[in-house]
Amino acid sequence: MLIDRLVATALAGSLMLMAGGAGAQTMGPSGETATPSAEVRLSDADLAAVKEKGYKAALLWHTSSDFTNAVTSGAKDEFARAGIQIVATTDAGFDAARQRSDIETALAAKPNVILSLPLDPVTSAEAFRQALTDGTKLVFLSNLPKGYKHGTDYAAIVTDDLFQMGKQAADALAKALDGKGKVGYIFHDASYYVTNQRDQAFKTTIEKDYPGIKIVAEQGISDPARAEELASAMLVQHPDLDGIYVTWAEPADGVLSALRASGNTKTKIVTLDLAEPVALDMVKGGNVTALVADKAYELGRAMAAVGVKALLGQETPAFVVAPALTVTKQNVAQGWKDSLNRDAPQSVLDAAK
User: Fold this and answer.
1) pTM of the prediction?
2) I want to staple 145 with a disulfide (CB 3.0 to 4.6 A). Which of 78, 125, 247, 283 is the partner?
3) Domains along the chain with CATH numbers
């Protein structure tokens, strides 16, 4: 799930993290204050104003995955409430040239609003130029085409509340450790704003809010396939670790393998994003204590709502964030639905009974 956004945001302009412990928050590319997605709602009057207009929408994504499927589902449901027809849904397969072709093809259907995650800021800036000329409203997921201005060229950027994801991971690990202990910190060693902000938020929260917990080992990772090897080395140097933070679920599975190989049932893991292997360990009472996820369905709903407001000529917030949620054994079934708008894997549901 995360890798969708890692590749897609590699060339994006960085979003900023406003530091300050419990008061920190995710900020937009030009320092915009985040508007919670819950505040972006369509009123009955809004819905009535657009329902008979015959408006059309296109969803032009970077790839197809559980994440994008959930975003699509949220957008489709919101557009359906407004009587807006979806005329195109595309998957660029992480290919910027293919996405440009998708945009050109979709514009032939004359959509009034486009939702998209632009793969490349420079290529996307040119690719969406005709849409702007046509008067099509643009709402972007996470990325922003180079040089585009809010209110003139696009209605909003919608993304995760990155700080809250990292903070909730810190809170969950602290709860599992009763507020004291030694932990390892495995962060993403690459320049990707999604992981960078989430990782830093975890570290900042531990250091500022939990004086009884000390980060005694830090390890950057760029290749998830090396997670088991790197975690094994960390555990050799620090065999008494009480907990480990891992930047996302795929490398967390490797860390879990390292713990199992050493017979370690004590060290707790917290990681970000939903995945079957780590969720299965969590519900079976293993090392994984919690998973923190975004609300992908809500991202899509909010994007569609912004698009409708733009069509109505209403002022729209520049930067919108969807909430994070902490998933544990106790709420795994509901958490999966809240995040991805689908059931958790059957293996996880069965083990959680």
Assistant:
1) 0.85
2) 125
3) 2-161+296-322 (3.40.50.2300), 162-295+327-352 (3.40.50.2300)
